[in-house]
Amino acid sequence: MTISLKDRVLLGELFYKNGDCATIALKKFWSLKCLRSGSGPMTAFGLKKMIDKFEESGSFDVKCGRGRKAIASTSVEDVATALQEASSSALGTCSARGISRTLDMPVSTVRKILRNILQCYLFKIKHVQELVPADLLKREAFALQFLARMEVDNAWPWNIFWTDQAYFHLQGPVNTQNCRIWARENPSQMQPLPLHSQKITVWCGFTAAFIVGHFFFEEIGPSGSITCTVNGTWVMNLFCETSSF
Fold first, then answer.
1. What Gene3D superfamilies does the entry give (predicted)?
2. pLDDT one-digit tens code per residue, 169-213
3. Residue ranges per structural domain of the chain
4. Is the pTM of this model over 0.85?
């Protein structure tokens, strides 16, 4: 945060009026500017340095050439080239720190170039179901069979029995991507989690006319109840044991 010439003069006056004490001068400056204590744009050490320069030069003006320097066009070209080379990897991943190490350039400069000049944004890798070549043929065959049956009976899709399952953690871990704590200081909040947390499998089935479930599945292991995967055998046993089917 830069300090205007008017505020520099005010700080100088407060410094000399309070026995050359930088701490008292800053406190009175914060009070006059309605700033929270310690949140001002200058520290006591910085104020003393400013006074020393004033006594040497006789002016509170900032020398020409001070402040943020413009980013060279060659640096922008180097970062753009490094970004293109890093993006050609298997997953297309790259990082500002990696480019910084490659180019021997400050990571803050790399981030400024990526965000402000090259207009790049951070994106996450999305996980999707892997498909093998045989899956494409199966999907095509299912789609053709589905359309053929609909030509015979338009109400046939109403007889399809859809199923799904989900796993719920019993310890209730916090989603750190969505949970945020607003505070003046870091509360260093932690949530201990076991290496293998206990989960429970919940299964549900439905058609266009009714819903079946939900059912909880678990197996008895050496250490107690453990979660299990719902497969065709589980579903067939459920059908046989449940009279509603």
1. Ribonuclease H-like superfamily/Ribonuclease H
2. 777 776 676 676 666 777 777 777 777 777 777 888 888 888 877
3. 5-57, 73-119, 133-243
4. no
